[in-house]
């Protein structure tokens, strides 16, 4: 399916700038945008929020680098 950012924005009733910023990685998908996109593409609610969460986790892992490796699991008991 080929659709322009402008056409998608029109179809889901959001500013085209919002779609452009999401595509460029400059804006996160919000619950509002998720619901609109999921309805339009026939996906289950929350799909795009899960994609966003995975993307955010990848960015955080990259940014934290060795700091994350140094953290040891808590051995409670």
TrEMBL record:
Chain ranges of the HTH cro/C1-type domain: 2-48
Matches recorded under InterPro entries: Cro/C1-type_HTH, Lambda_DNA-bd_dom_sf, Toxin_antidote_HigA
Gene3D superfamilies given in the database record: lambda repressor-like DNA-binding domains
Keyword DNA-binding attributed: yes
PROSITE patterns: HTH_CROC1 (PS50943)
Molecular-function GO term, any one: DNA binding
SUPFAM superfamilies documented for this protein: lambda repressor-like DNA-binding domains
Pfam families reported in the protein's UniProt record: HTH_3
Keywords: DNA-binding
Name recorded for this polypeptide: Unannotated protein
